[in-house]
Amino acid sequence: MSSLFNMEYMEDQKYRDEDDLPEKLEGFKNKYAEFDLNDQGEIDLMGLKRMMEKLGAPKTHLELKKMILEVTGGSSNTINYRDFVKMMLGKRSAVLKLVLIFEDKANSTPCKPDGPPPKRDIASLP
């Protein structure tokens, strides 16, 4: 997959107002290529399974099939790059998109502890 492939989206009116479009597309391309196991330009069931496991969100075969159906609209048993980008840039929220966005956020922001700050006793005060 070359950057040329992403030109289609750079020139598409639908995505004109998308912030940081070139960076997003480059990220999508890299993420997609990582899980295109058969180098056919598609993510099949096993590729998606590996992706979900690597992201720490393993899914059953049935869940994986549903995710592919959600992304492709039922037109295919594999996710091609065009479907992948449409999902990532589209308004619909697909399970796969949510997992990927969550994973990106988790990797890019330093973790802050959740909940109230730990209790402090008088001895620990300066």
From TrEMBL:
It is found in: Cell projection, Ruffle membrane; Cytoplasm, Cytoskeleton. Gene3D superfamilies: EF-hand. It is a peripheral membrane protein. PROSITE patterns: EF_HAND_2. It comes from Oryzias melastigma (Marine medaka). It comes from the Eukaryota. The keyword Translocase does not apply. Keywords: Acetylation, Calcium, Cell membrane, Cell projection, Cytoplasm, Cytoskeleton, Membrane, Metal-binding, Phosphoprotein, Repeat. One of its GO terms (biological process) is ruffle assembly. One of its GO terms (cellular component) is actin filament. One of its GO terms (molecular function) is actin filament binding. This is Allograft inflammatory factor 1-like. Its main location: membrane. InterPro entries: AIF-1_EF_pair, AIF1/AIF1L, EF-hand-dom_pair, EF_hand_dom. The keyword DNA repair does not apply. Pfam families: AIF-1. PANTHER family: ALLOGRAFT INFLAMMATORY FACTOR 1-LIKE, ALLOGRAFT INFLAMMATORY FACTOR-1. Residues 117-126 have a biased composition (Basic and acidic residues). Residues 23-58 form the EF-hand domain. Residues 106-126 are annotated as: Disordered.
